[in-house]
Specification:
- The chain has 355 residues and is an alpha+beta fold.
- It folds into two domains: 230 residues, 3-Layer(aba) Sandwich (Rossmann fold), CATH 3.40.50.300; 112 residues, Nucleic acid-binding proteins (OB fold (Dihydrolipoamide Acetyltransferase, E2P), Beta Barrel).
- Helix content is 23%, strand content 33%.
- The protein has eight helices and 20 strands.
- The protein has a six-stranded mixed β-sheet, sandwiched between helices. A five-stranded antiparallel β-sheet has the order 12-11-13-19-20. It has a five-stranded antiparallel β-sheet with strand order 14-18-15-16-17, with no helix packed on it.
- A hairpin with a 2-residue loop joins β19 and β20.
- α3 packs across α4 and α4 runs parallel beside α5.
Amino acid sequence: MSEAGIVIDGVTKRFGSFTAVDNLTLTFADGETACLLGPSGCGKTTLMRMIAGLETPTEGRIIIDGRDVTNLRPRRRNIGMVFQYPVMYQTLSVRENIALPLKRDRSLSAAERKKRVDEVLDVIDLAHRADAYIDELDAGSRQKVAVGRSVARQTKVVLFDEPTTNVEVNAKLTLIRTFKEISRRLKQTAVYVTHDQTEAMTLADKIALMKDGSIIQYDGPTALYQKPASEFGGWFLGNPGMNFIPAQRTEAGLVSPLLPEPLDAPAKLGAGKVRLGIRPEQLLARTEPFKGSVEAKVEDCIVGIAGQLLARLSVASETVKLKTGALPNLRAQDTIHIGFPPEDLLVFEDGVRVT
């Protein structure tokens, strides 16, 4: 077992009869930015709190930088933490807030503390506001100061607990860029908790997708989106999520009422019913029939971000989601023709991807 970064070794956390985290084994690599992503109640915050030392595992171990910290108090774990609601000292300036935790480190001279604070101010792009007081800053800038204060200690690990939740959209984008710059320049291992898939896909080197206390998949953002290991991953990621259409394995291959001809069936696929997954943006859509197309009726549609049209279609008694820029004049009740490119179809059996 690698001891670099953070090792989660068979960790379970129970609260009475409720299991919040269920026998997790996972390694966050040294210097990696990892996101814990999932719906409310999936266990991501509980896992982060155990890494921080705010909760103790019922079973298992947590190892940080090769040291078993399972039963150590937070202050002895050499970690930084950034919360949703940063605790700032209103009577201190930006510089003084960032420098505050460094005053406890007697190995640092005054000159070294100043140099480290100056470096952090540069990274978080607040050097020009170094002497401003906290109540003079907007919410996004305050959160930057919280980040700066955590990373100034140069701990091996920094934990982020949904730090952009209470920040306006424009400031949120700036904060995400700040997090990426900090990760790149300081090479600290970062674990970032979020329910926002856009944040996770933008920020993370790898994403741990969680559900019901378990990690469904731990992978890079592109792989997680393009090759979800489960139907849950296909549904949860994407706006809107993946389409799933019914199919049946027969001697001719995989047959579905939405497909004009059978598909080759994977050798390891069992006999019986499966579901085929495809992203709404991967569907082909035209006003006229084309090879491999089926007829679809538009139930409703809206224009989304960047002119992308989102539509709900009725196809052979199934409902299918379409995302396209090719049919800007589409209206409800229109009839169109759609195709399912075989190379983009994923096969799921019992909720698990087999291809």
